Amino acid sequence: MAQPLVKKDDDRDDEAEYSPFLGIEKGAVLQEARVFNDPQLDPRRCSQVITKLLYLLNQGDSFTKVEATEVFFSVTKLFQSKDLGLRRMVYLIIKELSPSADEVIIVTSSLMKDMNSKTDMYRANAIRVLCRITDGTLLTQIERYLKQAIVDKNPVVASAALVSGIHLLQTNPEIVKRWSNEVQEAVQSRAALVQFHALALLQQIRQNDRLAVSKLVTSLTRGTVRSPLAQCLLIRYTSQVIRESNTQTGDRPFYDFLESCLRHKAEMVIFEAARAITELSGVTSRELTPAITVLQLFLSSSKPVLRFAAVRTLNKVAMTHPMAVTNCNIDMESLISDQNRSIATLAITTLLKTGNESSVDRLMKQITNFMSDIADEFKIVVVEAIRSLCLKFPLKYRSLMNFLSNILREEGGFEYKKAIVDSIVILIRDIPEAKESGLLHLCEFIEDCEFTYLSTQILHFLGIEGPKTTDPSKYIRYIYNRVHLENATVRAAAVSTLAKFGAMVDALKPRIFVLLRRCIFDSDDEVRDRATLYLNTLGGDGEVVETDKDVKIFLFGDLDIPLVNLETSLKNYEPSEESFDIDSVPKEVKSQPLVEKKAPGKKPAGLGAPPAGPPSTVDAYERLLSSIPEFSNFGKLFKSSSPVELTEAETEYAVNVVKHIFDRHVVFQYNCINTIPEQLLENVSVIVDASEAEDFAEVTSKPVRSLPYDTPGQTFVAFEKPDGITAVGKFSNTLRFIVKEVDPSTGEAEEDGVEDEYQLEDLEVVAADYMMKVGVSNFRNAWESMGEDFERVDEYGLGPRESLAEAVSAVINLLGMQPCEGTEAVATNSRSHTCLLSGVFLGNVRVLVRLQFGIEGSRDVAMKLAVRSEDEAVGDAIHDIVSCS
Amino acid sequence: MELCPCVKNILLLDFEGKRVAAKYFCDDWPTNGAKEAFEKAVFNKTQKTNARSEVEVTMLENNIVVYKFVQDLHFFITGGEEENEIILATVLQGFVDAVGLLLRGNVEKREALEYLDLILLCIDEIVDGGIILETDANIIAGKVASHSTVADGLSEQTFSQALATAREHLARSLLK
User: Fold this and answer.
1) A769-884 is classed in which CATH architecture?
2) What is the nearest CA distance from B147 to chain A, expressed in angstroms?
3) What is any Pfam family matched here (chain A) (predicted)?
4) In the CATH scheme, what is the code of domain A594-765?
């Protein structure tokens, strides 16, 4: 009995955890700091007090301005002591206190004395401290000493000066640049780290002079570099020079140097070189091979850092050159069981990228064991990798789908489960054979799903895909179970899904009706309302009849309206005789307010902000325009562009323009800001020269009467254009105004003004201005329901292009349509791509576009453009847009 | 463009994740709250791993963190995600070994607090404003100890002796 008790006492001692700082308190320590003022200094005691102060700062305590100043002043007294250790602590605390400019003066002379001391330690540290706290004016006084220190015999002193130089270059570049001769000399130093620091500083001094950096690299790659750190630095400079030299043909300069570094004795250099080679733009497999070989050796190193470095780099290479990495697959597979989970995850995702069809099954078996003991964040990465693998090898969907459904049943957080569900949904969408099994897996999942969001999403998805399967009835049980067992949100979603089955599958209708009738007695309003609505609209009293097409569209069709806009409109609607008109909801996808996109630090009174409230929503524009009598007969506003800047940033007057498109008119709204406090502008208008826009005729303009400093004002110019024609053209703009001087002290303007003009940039109306970005949720359904009646297909050669992705984004921008289902993203290195676009054309005509791109070896891009729309003429107009440009 | 290898922070935490000493060289974590949150995240992510014989490595918030544990002390160094992790590991190893020399093998929280001045000076000699000053443990410890009032004993020893003492201490603690 006695033994354990003693043991316990021991434990308690440990727990009480003796610490020299136990119960330390700021006030008391500041009191203690008075010993710095003693006439007879006790260096040991002073050191201890400084340590306590540093401890407080280190733990996140902060001193008030007064406290810091007080401590700083008493610390300066300690320069009297000759004690080396104490001096060292004094240096440290001065750096931590970061004194203000007027305080710095007090220690300057002491530090300058130390800078010229015979003791190397004093010199080195005094330089570091002084450079940390100094400002530009003081720097010129000590510049001479710093230049000497750079070439000092003692490496610690030289390094201290060089590193300080690197920091000072940020604040006082013009002074540090004058030291380049000394730095150059230090690069030749025999001391390893001096060379490293000198190299770092020299490159930064010359970084804007490409030729100089190139020369530096040339001379050093032939010479001797002493430390591995300096060698790494040189490799980075070399790759920068290679990047900037841009030689397309022949041997790459300096490649041999990089390759030779692969045989260096230091691991950090080998890795730096290998990584540099893999990151060369357009690297060939011949260039890549030696780098991959050394990385492969690292994979089986006993050091985790080397394995991590190698697998991380190979993971990146696998995205662009999967074939080059396959040689490492065996080594990589053994890393799946690596103790370090970061390494294991990287290994798996790399394998998933490089694996071939035959290795999938084996790989999945290994991953299954691995999944149980990693964190969710790693699991999500793996799930995403598996999804892309499945899309790559659709034939393997069975084992991959099985894997996903297995992990779906295991424990996991929301993000992880969502990643799995998303993956299954994508596989169902893209691999038709996987549909039935995928849907059943999802059905099983909602039987026991704790996340309302996922349940409702899956129910909605079932409603769309389920009725199209061979045996829709087998899903009903799963869905109806939800009506019994879930919360109201899920129950309501389940009711809607049931109704969809009823509407789409006529044979099931009588049975669905029975189920829906039971839902009328639900305890929740929403669930009852939905059930009642569906029972009444689907009609047929539960007979086996076909549901009316209009009813289907009414119940389940796309709204074609962004939900945000609908929400705003509904909130603004006031109950009255007039019922809510859904056509009045704007269809424009709301763009980000301009102000948010602007670089931080710029004045918040951005140009995009008209005086009254939040900017750039369609509502706001519509209200603004309809309040101006001149524009009242233009009809309904079709679309407003996002603001286009017509002036450079930081000019006297800041002007941007918003293009408002009507059926027969175009209105330019110029948002102007006067940024000169000493000026008042009056009668501000924009003179528009439309000689390069033949189809447009100016009808009216509306100037701003007065534009004081920093207050936004709008002037308008309206043009008439032929109805239904997508007229395009270029407009040149001149700001005309009367300028009056303002007395800055009183703020009053002088009586007389001078007429003046200010040239703005040109403005273009392009075809995309007549197109509104409106997405569809399911492109294929929309495409099929649109029908082939007004389909227009043609092929175009786009000529040589930078890349496939560049061509795709150029066409999307040209048409100004909304890319659907993420098809605007082009996989790197793919040779072909299909892009789906949706939009609404002038006159409220829906348009869908399917673009197929192909790229040839010579970078020639060909494109097949298929348009479906509700109006034949619009299809032709789309083709005109493409063929004209 | 910044090409010079850069250290974002050096952390020394205890076995519960409490800060013993920490030095930040960049503005990624502007407040003490942000710093503590990062330290907590780092500690939680690494505490179950075994980083006693070799330097380990992981990714956190788009940073690379290398770490090593000795007794009840956890050493960390953070760099950007583009940084060469082997360089960071070298710096960390230098830090761990230098602390071992300065504490004469007794690398544990109690000693580290007792000689906190040496630890802080040690960090000051390894990195200056994010730039690596020195990675050789003997040189770092030498620079710190040569002018220390506290570690009188050290200056009488040569550093190879000190290293031998450190090894002995380590061996003893392993045999316990």
Assistant:
1) 2-Layer Sandwich (3.30)
2) 5
3) Adaptin_N
4) 2.60.40.1480
Residue of B nearest to A201 (CA): B4
Average pLDDT over residues A220-235: 87
Residue B159 has pLDDT above 70, yes or no: no
What CA–CA distance (Å, rounded) separates A378 from A363? 17
Q: Is residue B3 part of a domain?
A: no
Total domains present in chain B: 1
Indicate whether A609 pLDDT > 70: no
Contact state of A193 with B133 under an 8 Å Cβ cutoff: yes
Q: Does any CB of chain A come closer than 8 Å to the CB of residue B150?
A: yes
Among partner residues A87, A128, A193, which is closest to B134 by beta-carbon distance? A193
The CATH number of residue B108's host domain is: 3.30.450.60
> Over the stretch A674-704, which tens digit does the pLDDT of each residue have?
888 888 888 888 988 888 888 888 888 888 8
What is the b/e burial string over A533-543, where b = at least 16 CB atoms within 10 angstroms of the residue's CB? bbbebbeeebe
Whether residue B17 is contained in a domain is answered as yes
Helix axes A155-171, A120-133, angle to 10 degrees: 10
Q: Are B77 and B135 a contacting pair, CB within 8 Å?
A: no
- Map out the domains of chain A as residue ranges: 211-283, 594-765, 769-884
Tell which B residues from 73 to 92 touch A, by Cβ distance under 8 Å: 84-87, 89-90
A292-306, A570-584, A834-848, B52-66: segment of lowest average pLDDT: A570-584
Share of chain B above pLDDT 90, in %: 65
Q: Is B22 on the interface with A (CB under 8 A)?
A: yes
Where in the sequence is the domain holding B157, given as residue range(s)? 9-175
Residues A44, B1: C-beta atoms closer than 8 Å = no
Q: B1 lies in a domain?
A: no
User: Could you tell me which chain B residue has the CA closest to the CA of A17?
Assistant: B110
Residues in chain A within 8 Å Cβ distance of B59: 342
B42–chain A Cβ distance below 8 A for any pair: no
